[in-house]
Predict the 3D structure of the following.
Amino acid sequence: MKRFLLPIVAGVFILVAIPAFILMRDMFVDPLKVSTSSAPTEMAGEASRGSYLARAGNCMACHTVRGGMAYAGGRAISTPYGDIYTSNITPDPETGIGTWSSDDFWRALHHGKSKSGRLLYPAFPYTNYTNVTRADSDALFAYLKTIPPVRQENRTHALRFPYNQPIVLAAWRGLYFRPGEYVPADHQNAQWNRGAYLVKGLGHCSACHTARNALGASSTKNDLAGGMMPVSNWYASALTSSGEEGLGDWRVKDVRDFLHTGVSARGAAFGPMAGVVSTSLQHLSGDDIEAMAIYLKSIAPGTMPVARSAPTERSPEATAVLEDGGRLYERHCAECHLANGKGAGIAYPPLAGSSTLHAPSPVNAIRIVLNGGFAPVTHGNPRPYGMPPFGTTLSDYEIAAVVSYIRTSWGNDSPMVTPIDVMRFRGIPAD
């Protein structure tokens, strides 16, 4: 009996005692005492730079409810484990960060801990923000201290058990999080390093463009290699130098135009990416956008699976579907995207060789045909063209047929989709 019980007791100790130790360590070790970062800079005169950095981090987008007061929090971030509500980061002394110091703010960005020492959930992307320098953290804090205070209580997260337990969060941090500032690469120039710093840090691009495991942690070996965005039902394309799904055959100018204006000769920003361009990237300097584009073009492809090649011989049923899709394309799509799928400038994105159509998941193409595609209004493209929705005029079969057609034509070699694939996304919210 003792020999039988000993492994069980040992297992319980590993599952409970070790996470408990991590939790106690995270709760009581003062991160400022173990930080190797430089001393805080003076905040005077930093607010203007902090405003720019807040744009780079797209802070307002998450910390503002639609129609609500800026930075007052309360927006739900949906996750597979429940909803996490963003916090009030206005300088209100009772419900915001009015009593915080620059050290407290640095602790949140760099270590993922609130002023009280409470561990923060990584829906607040401190796993990326830990790369931000102390000087930039202080500038951000200086800016937030200048915005109007808003008295708005923070909402309690709605996470399911056991994900709402601090010990589980502590264990997750022990497995997947290590604080550390971005260290410039000696073998790269200043422009490349600036791009890497923005992409890895405030831009937190990997939060969407990297696949996550069952525990919600990003895959380090497939950084920026693309992945399904949990709950939102969009696929974030690869940002690596992959030739089909990624940016391998994009020019630096194409990447720069896409990030800064939302449109380029290779494609346009739709869905969540359109919002990122609208509220964040279009406001960055040309030099910073250029640096990000240069860095992204340098990233080697990851090991994420790409779309499978279409079969060389199709069944009579599949051939009939593609013929129907071709007729639907000619009737509804060819006027803008042309019969050869090459599109027309930045107004009508090309479909031939589209990274969206080469993605492992067809979800983006299906959702755009269902609900329409609308590039963001930006300074560089103030009157963008939009694609009308076809969800009310075409059946699930017809949408599956036309999406299958464009995914298998003009050199595209992605698998066909089915009416069931379309039906899955017809009822979900467009946003």
In short: The CA atoms of residues 347 and 385 lie 6 Å apart. Confidence is low (pLDDT under 50) at residues 1-25, 27-41.
